[in-house]
Amino acid sequence: MATNQYFNFYNQAAEQSLTNDLVVESIQIYGHDVRYIPRNSGRIDDIFNETRNNTYDDAYEVEMYLQNVEGFEGDGDLLSKFGVEVRDTMNLICSVTRWQTEVGTPEGMTQPEEGDLIYLPMTDHLLEIKFVEDEEVFYQLGKTYIYTFRCEFFEYGQEEFNTGIADIDDVQTLNEYTIDFTLNSGTGYFIVGESIWQGV
Questions:
Q1: Which portions of the chain are predicted below pLDDT 70?
Q2: Any residues with CB less than 8 A from the CB of 68 and at least 6 apart, and which?
Q3: For the chain, where are the E strands, in sequence order?
Q4: Cβ atoms 198, 184 nearer than 8 A
Q5: What confidence score (pLDDT) does residue 200 get?
Q6: CA-CA distance, 23 to 21, in Å (whole number)?
Q7: What is the pTM of this model?
C-alpha cells in the first residue's frame, strides 16, 4: 500500500522556514562565535595528488555549536617515534542558511569544503575541517538545516595567512621555516635570526 496521498510533509515551506529559524536561534543561544577561513588552493601536485601553496586570505565570523561539550575527543596526545602527536578532534554544528549568508555568498561557495579552517577564539586553536556531514538530520520536513564539521587540530605546512586578524596570522609567523639572514660587510660577522656568527 502506498503512502497517503492527502498528506505531504516534504513541501511545507512555512514549516520548513519555522524549523530553520528555530535551529538558527538555538545555535545563536548555545553556540560560540568562531571564524570560518576558506582555503584558496594553489598548484596541484600530480604525483601526490595534493595542493601546494595554499593560502588563507579571509576569516568570516559565524556562530557554531560545539557538539563536544565535555572537551576534545579523538586519540588525544600520542608519543610515537616521530615525537608527540596531538590527535584531538571536535565536531561543530553550523546552520546551513547562516553559513550561506556569512560565508557562502561573499566567497561564491555553494557548500563548505574539507581543508577549510575554523578558528576557535575560546581556546585559541585552529581546526581543520576533515569531513563535512550535510545529512545528519535526515531531511526533516524535506530539508537539511545544519552542517556538522568533523575537525582536527591544524598542522602548519607552509601555508600563507593574510586574514588581517593577528591571532590567526601569527600561526605563519611562529611556525614558518624562514630565517632572517643579515650580512654585515666589513666586520666579518653575520647575523642569523638573533645569533651572531663570525665569518671564516
A1: 1, 42-43, 74-80, 82-86, 177-200
A2: 89, 90, 91
A3: 32-37, 44-45, 50-51, 55-56, 60-66, 73-80, 83-95, 117-120, 125-133, 146-153, 160-161, 181-184, 189-192, 195-198
A4: no
A5: 47
A6: 5
A7: 0.77
